[in-house]
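Lay summary. Proteins are chains of building blocks that fold into shapes, and those shapes determine what they do. In this project we predict the shape from the chain. Here is one chain we studied, written as its sequence of building blocks.
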Amino acid sequence: MAESSNTNAMVSGLKVSDILLPHPSLPNSMCLGPRSSESPAHLISCEANRIPFVNQNLDLTSWADCLRAWPNPPEGWVAWYNRVSKTHYATWETIGIADALSLSLSPLEKNENILKTIGYFWSDALNCFMFGHGPMTPTLLDVTMITGLDIASPSPSAFKLPKVPFTLSSKTECTSWGAYLKRYMKTKGPVTEREHTAFLNFWLEHFIFCGPSLAPTKNYLSLAYELAKGTRLGLGKLFLGEVYRSLQLMSVKLFSQRTVKTGGPWWFIQLWAQLYFQNQIPDFPPLTTCTFPDTDGREIRCTSYGQALYGLPGSRLIPKEAAGWFQIFFQGLSNPLFFPYTESENFENPVSFRLDSFADDASTRHLFSIMIRPCFLPVGMSTSNRITKPGYESYQPVVVARQLGLGQVPPHFFLHHLTASRAELPDILTGQRCYTFFDALAIPIPNNLCFTTTTDGFETWWTMWKTHAFRRALGPSLKQLDAEHDTTHQEQDGPEPKQADGSPFTFLPPAPVVLFCRNSPSLKQVIMQGQPISPKSASKNKASSGPVAPRASTQARKAVRKVAARKTLKRKAPVQDNLQGCDPSSLLTFDPESIEPAAPKASEEPSLEMVHGPLQRLKALLSSSVEILVENPEAIKGILDEIQPHLPVTLRVKLWPAATLSAFKSGVQSARQRITLRRAQLPLRADIAEKCQRLNEKKTALDAKTDTSANNAELETLRKELESLEEKVRMTKQLIQEKETFIARSREEAQGLTADLKTDLAEIRALSGQLVTGKDEDDEAEIGEVDRIRADALCALDEFLQKNFCVSY
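And here is the predicted shape, written in a compact code that computers can read:
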């Protein structure tokens, strides 16, 4: 590992004197470098228009899905925390996650007005917010003070994490965190490694990194398993890298005018913003008076900045308040708070970093040296994650020196000139070199260091930035956020920036990728340049070093850029078209006249005749067993030193790792010993397998006896059936009783009706006896018969009279 660190230091060319600079007016204070003596014009040309608020429409509805992943504890989490902490709290303290785990005990109110406006000021090129008063960003100091996560241990790498020997349910099986908790939380018995891993996986995914899936995944399962085994890891660097990557993904979404659905640790960004902008929050309480719930739910005194900030009230989205925060970020503060940790002596945590004991605590000063040193932050802990692959984000605290108590100078962005500011990593070797790239750069911190927030030559640098980036009127932006914003006072855009000669300043067209130093070589190519070099080259590099942080050797960078230019010629054509008519010297980060004369043609084109013999010898050496090569790779190094100027870059990239095999000596030896032991233990494994088989059979029998879930379910079904039948019987008896009552009442009523009927019948009979019998028809017939006789007699008399007397009537 020492060899690797030395190699990286040689590649970087960065010295301690480049980073910690004497303060010009305060003898016990320091400034943070590297310092730049160049104009920021080229940087502004590339990156100013890529900051979202400069060139994007503001739409608060774009953030709805982004903030759904929020670290509030679901039902049952506190009980699970209590159960696991009884066994593993000491381990958590040892590996530096106890403080961050304690934050999961409390809900956190969301401040949507801050979160949905602050993102528009993020520059993913510099990994910082560009506010009106200057750049600011979450740093490793903020991660330590708010979460207590470890930043000193080796950074975790997705390529080196072990395979988990057991399976946990994913989103397809447990569709929510509540279902996941019920499945893996035990209520009795010891806390197994499996349960501990499931617990930490829950914590990492839901409370720390806040994945967008809102359900269990395997993205951090291997990391959780490694932590459960008690391995110390630089989780703080991974966390800050994920914060930067979430903000970068947000920038890409805003650029493409899509809804921001990335998820991520926005909770930390909220706490960070509330801490640094506390003077703009109404009724902001003294943090030392805030309380935090313990495991029993009782409010107790806070022991860290993180716990104190967790108790602050939140706010739902209100357009007027959101516009107010945007105005604060845009206009900046007249007296910004750059160093908010002046009351750290009132909090016990973090134990490992005590600002109040800075002069006497060597470990605190060691951590501070890590906080101010540039590095590559790890991101992506799963090779199968579709969104975040294993890679790195650049950490360059030089742009926010005042947040670290150091003087601010015009920043030189060394990492941009060295390599790509962010990238995916292709393999384990590149990842190992990446995360330890600056470890050899040990920065001694004076024990009498006095913190300051002053500047040295920074005002000119920032004035140019502010003139170019904040040239648009504020009013139209506020109107986009708040439709009721008063626009009676018409604001005018600032004058269009001009160059020194009076010509219009040229901004490159906005792009979703970083444009500044876009032709820098890949990190793997940079690492390849770090193999041992000849004394002549070393002396040349040494002679060319100046006050500005040096870069990799010119000849190697030219060779790498030629290859990179050929590969990206077609892809970069549109951007280059936009550069036509510009003065190249204003866009280059170096003086063209300083380029040394081109090397002879023979050194640029590989000579196969010169390298054939050494390559054959190298092939014979590489044909040896790996155990021999890790013991003595000097022969390989010697051959590569001899022939590397004559090899093409692509072949050097492939051959270089073979010269560093000694770095894997202990790993290869350990692996070989384990293989030998495994082979010797075959009988033991067979015996264990047999015993495990018998144990499984016994466990199956035991489960059959003790697992009464099926019988309990059947019993419960029968009980329900019995209750149903009993209810039916009760209802039937009630119906029978009602029918019997009805029948009895009917009989009583029938008897009464019978008596009434007899009485009425007797009365009817009596009245019937008084009636005249017969029918009117019969009597009418009888009368009619008599009347017929009368009529016949009368008729006979009339006929007689007419006939005999001719009497006419």
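What the prediction tells us: The chain has three domains: 2-481, 604-679, 776-809.
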